[in-house]
Amino acid sequence: MRRDSVPIARRHVRAVLTQWKLAALADDAELIMGELATNAVQHAKGVGEFFEVELRRRNGVLILEVSDSYEWQMPEKRDAAPDDVSGRGLVIVDCVSDNWGVRPRESGKTVWAHLAINGRKAAAPAPANPDTAQGESCGVA
Fold first, then answer.
1. What is the C-alpha separation between 102 and 67, in angstroms, rounded?
2. Cα 99 from Cα 68, distance rounded (Å)
3. I need a labelling partner for 29 at 20 to 30 A (CA). Which of 11, 20, 100, 132 fits?
């Protein structure tokens, strides 16, 4: 996997969304794809050392996926310290997307994110502990 694959993946997303007449989603979709692809390049080392990008539309949702061959560790959102220079990718994906997750596959995993095509973000679930809720903002330190 090469770092120059990440901007290629972002450009692909913009080109496809423009062709699908969904250019209004391109900025958010490019940001999400850039973060997911960067994670694959930085962390996914496995059989074949590749990543694949897929975009689909289904029931008013744009689905962005990055699949890689690394099957031994599933990504998790974490809190980066203020001085950390990395570690915010999935926090950004969580903030920008309507939903995201990870699923294993035969060789590796797929990290996916959803964006509503109609532009209305789905309501966020209520926090388990209202005292620690950050409100409507989605800050990245």
1. 9
2. 20
3. 132
Check if the beta carbon of residue 70 is closer than 8 Å to that of residue 44: yes
Please tell me the predicted confidence (pLDDT) of residue 42.
Answer: 80
Residue 132 CA to residue 63 CA, distance in Å, equals 30
Q: Where are the beta strands (DSSP E) in the chain?
A: 51-58, 61-68, 99-105, 108-116
Q: Which pair of structure tokens corresponds to residue 131?
A: 């005292």
Distances (CA, A) of 79 to 25, 39, 83, 124: 27, 15, 11, 19
54-87 confidence digits (pLDDT tens): 999 999 999 999 988 876 666 666 676 666 555 5
Beta-carbon contacts of residue 98 (< 8 Å; ≥ 6 apart): 61, 114, 115, 116, 121, 122
Structure tokens at 46: 């496995």
Considering all CA atoms of the chain, what is the largest pairwise distance in Å, rounded to the nearest integer?
45
How does pLDDT run across 37-46, given as a tens digit for each residue? 988 888 766 5
